[in-house]
Write a structure and sequence with these properties.
This protein is mostly helical. The chain has four helices and no strands. The chain has one domain.
């Protein structure tokens, strides 16, 4: 069983993005949780959006690292 709480981590990351002036990116992550119809679909949407955020060079390193960690965990969960 995987005890990692993807939703709480995603919410924490979205809040950190918003607090750092990247509210649009935070909204993208929250939107994934609202738009998906099933748990798997939500995780897939979230992973896709995080992939896009990894390409945003102007994000601070700590946020990029947090995005990478969540992305990697989602990637492993969806395999």
């Amino acid at each position: 069983m995987n005890a990692y709480d993807y939703y709480s981590e995603a919410k924490r990351l979205a809040e950190a993005l918003e607090n750092s002036g990247f509210s649009d990116y935070g909204a993208e992550i929250v939107g994934a949780m609202e738009e998906g119809g099933t748990g798997t679909e939500i995780l897939m949407i979230m992973r896709m959006r995080l992939t896009g955020l990894l390409a945003v060079e102007r994000l601070p390193l700590n946020l990029r690292e947090s995005i990478q960690v969540l992305h990697d965990r989602l990637d492993n969960a969806l395999m």
